[in-house]
Amino acid sequence: MSGKVPSFEERVLIVAPTGNDAANAAEVLAKEGMDSRVCSDLPELCQLARSGVGTLLLTQESLTTHSLNHLALLLDEQPPWSDIPVILLASGGEATAPGLNSLRALGSSSTITVLERPLRVVTLVSAIKTGLRARRRQYQVRDLIHQRELIMGELSERAKSLEYSQRELLQAKEKISRHAEELEKTVEERTAKLRETIAQLEAFSYSISHDMRGPLRAMQQYSQILLEECRPGLSSDACHYLDRIARGAQRLDRLIQDVLTYSRVARASMPLVPINLDKLVRDILQQYPSFQPPRANVEVIQPLPVVLGHEASLTQCISNLIANAVKFVPPDRRPTVHVKTGTANGSVQVWFEDNGIGIAPENHQRIFNIFERVNSDAEFEGTGIGLSIVKKTIERMGGEVGVESELGRGSRFWIRLPTPHHEQHNTPR
Ligand code: ADP
Questions:
Q1: What's the number of CA atoms in the CB half-sphere (13 Å) around residue 112?
Q2: How much of the chain exceeds pLDDT 90, in percent?
Q3: Atom 16 in ligand 1: which residue has the minimum CA distance?
Q4: Which of 55, 58, 94, 246 could pair covalently with 131 via S-S, beta carbons 3.0-4.6 A apart?
């Protein structure tokens, strides 16, 4: 609602062409603190009323046919909320008032109050106040309508912009999903190509490694035969060289065997079944003399539970870990290894604790990568593939591998494996 009411909307427009009625009325209204304006005739009044009016005060004498036409025009123009109050000062009774019927016939757009002259001041004042009150309410209705229109306009603008944003959002969504589809397709195609290339490379390296073993074995065996059967005819230098050839070939053969094992682990299918860990570890210990006294003490701390895994692969992993535990020990110390288990997040953790040389923290991660070694071959023989086989295998069985160690203080390698009742959560890779 507008804070300040324009004064024209409170103004009383008066037409009384004869006598003192106009002047008297204006004087009375002024005394009552009401704004008024005396017009010379009805056409002028109509003109002023178009800028806003509180009430019309007319005398019967002002209603000529010509002036009534102006009034009819003014009333016709009024919007639905407007019903201009008209006070008509008549004389000689309502029925005989000429022009009154014509005034009434102008339509329902005005409320006409007829006051008989002579009239008391109080009657006039009260009639005008009633008219102004009614008119004030009409202007309030106008303001409300105007406000409603503004709000509706704003709402419709917002609805339009919302609709626009929604359309834009939808288009963006469609674009994104189209991009995602294309991307997915590209990734799929490239992954398939990559897989194919990797498979070809693996097959290639497997066959090369495999084929290399034949000539290597020949080198090994012929140098051995030479050493055994022709030693008397050979110089000590020749024997030394032959011995180096045999050992080199043997080392290369071991390396090839490890590479083949690694690539088998990466390629072979690995169905998981429940495995009795206790039996599996005992079988391994029996199989290798280097894991038994007097060469080493390997103690299994009961109980070792049933785990989910691939038996041949798990045997390979545990053999590798125990072999390392007894290998990386100072020469003057008898290797002592403890194998024990604990539970971790519903899976089984198997620990391999040794009394060996230990590993500095900065090497804990890298030793699980293929060909990574901390120690030289002269110190401890090896190929640097054992732990990478363990990692690859355990991960393919849905498990994890890690180490806790400090240099000079032994190592605690661990593997984490799913248990049979966790089968559904651990799909092999
Ligand atoms: P390899 O035993 O043939 O050297 P691995 O992959 O089995 O290869 O081990 C990688 C390296 O990790 C080893 O060369 C050694 O430096 C370190 N390592 C592995 N196990 C142990 C251990 N139990 N104690 C100390 N060092 C170890």
A1: 22
A2: 69
A3: 374
A4: 55
**Residue keyed to tokens 């020749």:** 238
Rounded to the nearest angstrom, the distance between the alpha carbon of 292 and the centre of ligand 1 is 20
Q: State pLDDT tens for residues 263-311.
A: 888 778 899 999 999 999 999 999 999 999 999 999 999 889 999 999 9
pLDDT at position 425 is 44
Which numbered atom of ligand 1 lies nearest the CA of 357? 25
Ligand 1 atom nearest residue 384's Cα = 8
CATH fold of the domain at 172-267: Helix Hairpins (1.10.287)
Task: Say if CB 47 and CB 2 are below 8 A apart.
Answer: no
Contact of 28 with 170, CB cutoff 8 Å: no
- The distance in angstroms from the start CA to the end CA of the chain is 73
387 Cβ below 6 A of ligand 1? yes
Q: Is the CB of 335 under 6 A from ligand 1?
A: no
CATH of domain 273-425: 3.30.565.10
pLDDT of residue 428: 41
Residues 300, 278 contacting (CB under 8 angstroms): yes
Ligand 1, residues 328, 352, 381, 406: which to mutate, most atoms within 8 A of Cβ?
Answer: 328
Burial 45-72 (b: 16+ CB within 10 A, else e): bbeebeebbbbbbbbbbbbeeebbebbb
pLDDT for 177: 96
For the CA of 413, the nearest atom of ligand 1: 23
What residue has token string 């626009």?
164
Global pTM?
Answer: 0.58
H helix intervals, 349-421: 386-396
Q: What is the pLDDT of residue 271?
A: 93
Q: Which H helix or E strand runs over 113?
A: strand 110-116
Residue 429 pLDDT class (50, 70, 90 cuts)? very low
pLDDT (average), residues 185-211: 89
- Spans of all domains in the chain: 8-136, 172-267, 273-425
| Residue 12 CB–ligand 1 contact under 6 Å | no
Q: Is 367 in the pocket of ligand 1 (CB under 6 A)?
A: yes
Q: Could you tell me the two tokens for 336?
A: 């002592």
Say yes or no: CB of residue 325 within 6 Å of ligand 1.
Answer: yes
Cα–chain-centroid distance for residue 107?
66
Query: Which CATH architecture is the domain 8-136 placed in?
Result: 3-Layer(aba) Sandwich (3.40)
| pLDDT over 70 percentage in the chain | 93
